[in-house]
Amino acid sequence: MDYFEAVKQRRSIRAFTAQPVEADKLEKILEAANAAPSAGNLQAYEIHAVKTTKARRALAAATRGQDYVAAAPVVLVFCRHPARAEKYGDRGRNLYSVQDATIACTYAMLASTALGLATVWVGAFDDEAVWKAIGAPEGITPVAMLPIGYPGEKPEPTSRRGLDTLVHEV
Q: Is 112 contained in some domain?
């Protein structure tokens, strides 16, 4: 699938089939995330690939009711790694590391779509509970979760703002 088609086809999917994500597809998704740009190419983020039922259930519990997280065969948890952005001081630790994680998550989301898989960005969760569920070391903070699987639904496109109200020329 070409890039613009992937952008056009991407939807937030909250229902997944039981079909597992093939290892080669997951590797392509992770390679795409790894290719994402980052501040100073420091890659101030970590990715935790959560596959076990127990850990996926713990992640779902951390989301305050977003039970579909556990239904996805794979959940990628993107975490900021502030120490990797130390070069840029407070801005690197507090902003660039978050931006790095979110850009990588976006690349993974679009790669998943291009491979015929479904995703949904999950940002509402209890940080501490997610941190414990993935067994992250001290200093690593979850930023976003990306459940990935085969779609169990096909929602219609949502409306978007017109470029005339979104874009401001200067």
A: yes
